[in-house]
Amino acid sequence: MVKVGTKIGFFTDDNYVAALMSNVDFFELYITSNQDIKRFSGIKKQIIIHAAHQGHGVNLADPKMSTVSRKMLKLALKAADYFTSDKVIFHPGETSCPEHTFEISTKVVRELNDTRMCVENMPIAYKEENYLCRSKKEIETYMKETNVGFCLDIAHCYEFAWKKDLNPTTTLKNLLTLNPNHFHLNNSHKNSCFQKGFGDGHNSIFKGDVEIKKVLSHLPADANITLETPLDIQTQIKEIEFIKAL
Questions:
Q1: Which of 83, 85, 99, 124 gives 20 to 30 Å between its CA and that of 164?
Q2: How far is CA 116 from CA 3, 161, 167, 214, in A?
Q3: Three-state secondary-structure class, residue 78
Q4: Which residues are registered as beta bridge partners of 151?
Q5: What is the b/e burial string over 123-147, where b = at least 16 CB atoms within 10 angstroms of the residue's CB?
Q6: Mutual angle of helices 136-146 and 168-176, in 10-degree steps
Q7: 175 and 142 in contact (C-beta within 8 Å)?
Q8: What is the pLDDT of residues 196-224, one digit of tens each?
Q9: Is residue 186 within 8 Å of residue 130, measured between CB atoms?
Q10: Strand, coil or helix: 90
Q11: Residue 179 CB: number of other CB atoms within 10 A?
Q12: Rounded (5°) CA angle 226-43-39
């Protein structure tokens, strides 16, 4: 049976968590350095972890940021220990200059040697930067070199396909062969998602050009899906009900 959860963290309050408690199967907690994770200790649902990313000064591919990036990943793993989480999702980094490399990113992750970690596939670009792990080949190589799992972000997959003029469904099917153990889901608009450089606007699943029904028909029957949609409680309840009704 499909399980569905939502994101929580510094951007959500206790009322949000309480309102969705009976609708979700789990929560995905985004970890930052100034966060008191004990605030979430009363949650009676499974909690998985998402490590801080570029929005909080983390870039695993940048040698000058390796110490900070390693610290933030360790903080996420410590949170996973606290909540007995079996997944820690992370972004692999970006290569906006020659000094930022795939090898530096994999070295940091390999040294941590934790199989709970799941690399997330990324869209084509963020501003003028280039993310790692956009194509199947690069994701597959990253997984082999670090022994981590895979979180398949549906919108990122579609945005990559749109930007490269690839068939999104074929691209999705190719990524599914990597046996992802978690999914992120939201919608996106093909014609506008790259106007500001970074495509993922985290739209409601009901608003965009991603064919959500078709996507869900291709996912495993026991998929674990985190909604990365706007934090409107009533809409998210409808999204959860929609997914589980299919």
A1: 99
A2: 18, 28, 31, 29
A3: helix
A4: 120, 182
A5: bbbbeebbbbbbbbebbbebbeebe
A6: 20
A7: no
A8: 544 556 899 999 999 999 999 999 999 99
A9: no
A10: strand
A11: 11
A12: 105
Closest listed residue to residue 154, CA positions, set 187, 132, 179, 127: 187
Q: How crowded is residue 191: how many other Cβ atoms within 10 Å of its Cβ?
A: 8
Tokens 């919108």 found at: 155
Rounded CA gap, 93 and 101, in Å?
9
Distance between CA atoms of residues 111 and 162, nearest Å: 35
Q: In this structure, which amino acid lies at residue 197? A: G
Q: Can you give the residue ranges of every domain in the chain?
A: 3-245
Q: Which two tokens stand for residue 19?
A: 């309102």
Q: What is the mean pLDDT of residues 176-180?
A: 98
- Strand, coil or helix: what is 35? coil
| Confidence (pTM) | 0.95
Q: Residue 53 and residue 37: Cα distance in Å, rounded?
A: 17
Q: Place domain 3-245 in its CATH homologous superfamily.
A: Divalent-metal-dependent TIM barrel enzymes (3.20.20.150)
| Distant-in-sequence, close-in-space partners of 1: CB < 8 Å, separation ≥ 6 | 221, 222
